[in-house]
Amino acid sequence: MDIKSVKKQIASLPLVRDFFHWKSERHIYNLEKERFMKEAADAVANLPESERKAILDEYAEVFKKYRFSYPEYFYQYNIADVSQEERDKFISRSEVQCFYRKLNNPAERFRFHNKAAFLRDFAPFIHRKWLLAGKGENSSLDQIIELLHSDVIIKPLCSSFGVGVSKIKGSELTSAEREETAVKLLAGESTLVEECIRGCEELESFHPSSLNTVRVVTENSTGTPTLFHSFVKFGRGGSVIDNAHDCGGLLAEIDIKTGVVCSNAITTILGDSDHEYHPDSHKQFKGLKIPHWEKMINTCIEAHKKSSLMLIGWDVAITQEGEIEIVEGNHAPDVDAWQHPLKRGIKEKFMKVVEGYKRRMKK
Predict the structure, then answer these.
(1) Does the pTM of the predicted model rise above 0.85?
(2) How distant, in Å, are the alpha carbons of 107, 134, 303, 331 from that of 111?
(3) Partner of 89 for a Cys bridge, out of 268, 283, 312, 345, CB 3.0 to 4.6 A?
């Protein structure tokens, strides 16, 4: 046996694997601590020194125990103002990501992180046209031009939070403009080009510039996927993106028993208030009934059967024809969107899924 094979065998031993995982997690912890404390210091920089020190000392203790980011601590969950008992009901984004890194199979993560791999693997739930454009990809100039007769969304292959997403109104381009755009796409980095989805009137009317989607979170702790949580997302201010993380979008919680929105809309931008009405269309969020609710949930549960992941966050569109279209899946859905709208912690519920999943994986 050669040295390379021996090293690989040693690295696969449970104790060795656990050591390197622990070492990696400590590194991530230290990076987060430095970044979060800086964010906190920047946020209170204009306060009197005594008040600033008291806040930062308190936050440092809270971070040590819970790993809340400063927005989670101060704004999203109001941790600074609730009792110890209430604090213990919340779980931080950082702690949840630790479980994802520990429990999610790397190959499964790739299927979701790489958007083209996702579209291929979950083809039964994808009905829009799409292709990969760029140097080294198989799409021809004619194929790109053909797709550009429709409005399209341009996405980086691997990104999150709406970063790098843009829209091309192909239907409004001249033939010369269409060819010029296709040439640029063909010569650039690998890029996903997707036919635009036209959403249903019930959701589109809130903000027509964006595809407003429903996040459906399913879990599989028992071997049979079930619904875990859900919220609806809206763009605003003319943006084509509905993501509330760093993109200014809005989200509101859905009562999973009824399919009806049960909260005001929030964003993760520090200091932004809750919204009873959409700031552009002035339509009220609470009471909105999500169309085709049962059909949507059943679609996501069926899709989860094609993956071994513990939890999946599906971004789902409802088309004007009433069809369910999965836009993408998220292998590590963020927990703040589940707790922020109603300021209600879900740690106990989340940990039940984790423990059940661990038991299932040991069998």
Answers:
(1) yes
(2) 7, 20, 13, 9
(3) 345
Buried b / exposed e along 178-203 (16+ C-beta atoms within 10 A):
bbebbeebbeeeebbbbbbbebbeeb
Q: pLDDT digits over 168-201, tens only?
A: 999 999 999 999 999 999 999 899 999 999 999 9
Distance of alpha carbon 212 from alpha carbon 249, whole angstroms? 10
CATH topology of domain 129-195: Dna Ligase; domain 1 (3.30.1490)
Write phi, then psi, for 232 (nearest 5 degrees): -110, 145
Instruction: With beta carbons less than 8 A apart as the criterion, state whether 341 and 330 touch.
Output: no
Range(s) of the chain covered by CATH 3.30.470.20:
199-332
DSSP 3-state of 17 = helix
| Phi, psi (degrees; rounded to nearest 5) at 284 | -80, 140
Contact 343, 77 (CB under 8 A): yes
DSSP single-letter state for residue 12: T
Delimit the CATH 3.30.1490.20 region(s) of the chain.
129-195
